[in-house]
């Protein structure tokens, strides 16, 4: 049933966020620490176990895949509800500071990405073929 | 009669949002295909248009939630709010390659620390150059250069005034919005085309909305990797900001 997949996803998100809050409380921080990331790891792990046990049928998977495929439209809605005015009218410190920080951070990405095992990272295949499948 | 018809949209906010965003994506995909010959992804255009609509919504209503402050589009706020966004982000983990996580895990952790410390001191230095020489001000603005959540939490913890906190939110907003726009443009230059680099990217940028929007516009398959590290960033930033980093700033400036 589709709802099994959706419920599994919901349970992982809630469990991840509860653990994230607990970590936050434990180290005395007033924010959630990695709740969503932990939820993702949990989902990866649970799906792996369920698939091995043969408990995840196609329709349950569809419940998760549906939400994952709604990701981009949700991000577009997120972009449409940002406080852009606040960013633009924040004054020169905010504007200069924000832009310089972003530029430097971008420049550091390849430096760190190539450390250690990252040297051997292989680019994903060209996106065009993947897109064709996705758009259907 | 007009009012009753408008009410159909306003009272079905989330459904209106689905229809409106779907229409927006359709138009943007057509623009991408026919006007840019597919060179700029439809999702990148849609995100940019979303930000412009946000600006218009903000100017016309004076609110903080962009287009979502316009009554007709209030559902956009629910659809793009943190609940559904995080739900969809978690769902993308369905396609994650565990091997890739294992390979780049350590780089991701390094990126988290560098990604918090470098923007913090850079932001602090710029604040200093603009005349904010007080350690509390430098720390709050520097923390805002991490994310617009780390800024106010750090500022509140060390007793910053509300105008400083507003400034730290503004610098964080500039960061998150420019990450959304710039990522697809520079992705090729910084080799952001594989899961390991995406993990590092998420840790380096930290802003969940910036990373989510930027990667979605670059290559949706990279989203889960970037999002996974980015979600640890704010928590780590809130831990380091008011403690270690504040103490370092105080030692440097002698406050």
From TrEMBL, chain A:
Keywords: Membrane, Transmembrane, Transmembrane helix. The chain crosses the membrane at residues 30-50, 94-113. InterPro entries: Maln_transptMadL. The keyword Membrane applies. Pfam families: MadL (PF03817). NCBIfam families: malonate_madL. This is Malonate transporter, MadL subunit.
TrEMBL record, chain B:
The chain crosses the membrane at residues 6-28, 40-58, 70-96, 108-130, 136-157, 164-186, 198-218, 230-253. The keyword Glycoprotein does not apply. Pfam families: MadM (PF03818). It comes from the Bacteria. InterPro entries: Mal/Na_symporter_MadM (IPR004691), Mal/Na_symporter_MadM_N (IPR018402). Residues 7-252 form the Malonate/sodium symporter MadM subunit N-terminal domain. Keywords: Membrane, Transmembrane, Transmembrane helix. The keyword Membrane applies. This is Malonate transporter subunit MadM. It comes from Salinisphaera dokdonensis CL-ES53.
């Amino acid at each position: 049933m589709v709802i099994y997949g959706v419920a599994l996803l919901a349970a992982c998100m809630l469990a991840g966020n509860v653990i994230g809050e607990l970590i936050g409380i434990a180290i005395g921080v007033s924010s959630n620490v990695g709740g969503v990331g932990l939820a993702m790891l949990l989902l990866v792990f649970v799906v792996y176990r369920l698939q091995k046990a043969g408990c995840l049928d196609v329709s349950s998977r569809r419940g998760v895949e549906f939400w994952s495929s709604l990701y981009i439209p949700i991000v577009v809605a997120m972009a449409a509800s940002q406080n852009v005015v606040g960013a633009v009218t924040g004054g020169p410190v905010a504007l200069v500071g924000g832009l310089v920080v972003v530029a430097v951070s971008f420049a550091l990405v390849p430096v760190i990405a190539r450390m250690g095992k990252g040297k051997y990272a292989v680019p994903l295949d060209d996106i065009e073929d993947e897109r064709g499948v996705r758009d259907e | 009669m007009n009012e009753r018809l408008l009410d159909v949209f306003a009272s079905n906010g989330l459904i209106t949002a689905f229809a409106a965003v779907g229409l927006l994506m359709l138009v943007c995909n057509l623009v991408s295909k026919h006007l840019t010959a597919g060179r700029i992804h439809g999702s990148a255009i849609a995100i940019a248009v979303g930000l412009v609509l946000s600006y218009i919504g903000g100017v016309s209503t004076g609110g903080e939630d962009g287009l979502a402050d316009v009554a007709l589009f209030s559902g956009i706020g629910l659809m793009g709010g943190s609940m559904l966004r995080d739900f969809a982000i978690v769902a993308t983990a369905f396609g994650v390659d565990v091997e890739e996580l294992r390979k780049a895990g350590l780089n991701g952790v390094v990126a988290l620390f560098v990604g918090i410390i470098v923007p913090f001191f850079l932001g602090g230095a710029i604040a200093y150059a603009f005349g904010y020489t007080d350690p509390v001000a430098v720390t709050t603005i520097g923390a805002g250069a991490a994310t617009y959540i780390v800024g106010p939490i750090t500022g509140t913890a060390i007793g910053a005034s509300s105008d400083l906190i507003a400034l730290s939110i503004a610098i964080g907003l500039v960061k998150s919005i420019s990450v959304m726009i710039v990522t697809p443009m520079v992705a090729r230059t910084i080799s952001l085309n594989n899961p390991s680099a995406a993990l590092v990217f998420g840790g380096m940028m930290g802003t969940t909305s910036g990373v989510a929007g930027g990667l979605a516009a670059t290559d949706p398959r990279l989203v889960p990797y970037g999002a996974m590290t980015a979600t640890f960033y704010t928590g780590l930033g809130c831990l380091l900001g008011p403690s270690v980093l504040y103490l370092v700033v105080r030692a440097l400036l002698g406050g």
